[in-house]
Design brief:
About 30% of the residues lie in helices and about 25% in strands. Strand 1 and strand 2 form a beta hairpin. The protein has a domain of about 40 residues.
Length: about 60
Amino acid sequence: MDTQEMKIIHLYDRQDPEIQIKLEKNSKGYNWEITFKGENANTVLTKIREVNKKLNEEYGGER
């Protein structure tokens, strides 16, 4: 009796990192939460700083 070997390979497309921003308005102004996922910490932190700067310019907030 011949035996057959079956191999299953899962392939996933690499997706670009996604930026998520949660913006809340309250009595004192705006608060936000920035989420960015990536493989390189320096790239992630640079992107978060860039987004935070834009949010500060648009909505004000602590610097």
